Amino acid sequence: MQNPIHQTKLFLLFIASTLILSACTGTRPKQLGEAQTSLQVCPSSPNCVSSLKDEDKDHFIESIRYTNKPSTHEALVKAINSDESAELIIKTDQYIYAEYTSAIMRYVDDVEFLFDDNQQRIHVRSASRLGHSDFGVNRDRIEQIRSQLNDGAQ
């Protein structure tokens, strides 16, 4: 039989760990969502990439080109849904918003896609909610999605 003090310490450690890990999710930004017709500029921290023309070279990433919007939109939704770390939050004809959660620390990244029918481009923004650096995770994610969409177009 285990010592009750030891059991209490283990229980408190479990509670503390749960609270710490749940704090890594942050709060969903209020400016994201269905009503969006443009994307926010990245903050100065290096944990964000965006295809906005106003971004500096460290934050800038090329938008994703498309020729057939319905099939590209469908392929993008499929790519998001096939990633077990992703949760599709908003999906309209022009705008898609998903949250990606890291496996261990449960950090959440907000990822937006805005279709520009005139230029046949998907503008993108991928940003970590918390922390300073993302070790390139947001840029890698967008490039992986670009690759999936390009592979599907062939």
Mean of all residue-level pLDDT scores: 85
Q: Which structural class is indicated by helix and strand composition?
A: alpha+beta
Radius of gyration: 19 Å
The residue fraction in helices comes out at 25-40%
Order of helices and strands: HEEHEEEEH
How large is the share of residues in beta strands?
A: 15-25%
Tell me about the biggest sheet?
A: 6 strands, antiparallel
Number of strands: 6
Please, could you describe this protein's structure?
The protein has 154 residues and is an alpha+beta fold. The protein is 32% helix and 23% strand. The chain is built from 3 helices and 6 strands, in the order αββαββββα. Helix 2 packs across helix 3. Mean pLDDT is 85; it is low at 14-24.
Short description:
The chain is of the alpha+beta class. The protein has helices at 4-22, 69-81, 137-153; strands at 48-50, 64-65, 86-91, 95-101, 108-116, 121-128. Strand 4 (95-101) and strand 5 (108-116) form a beta hairpin.
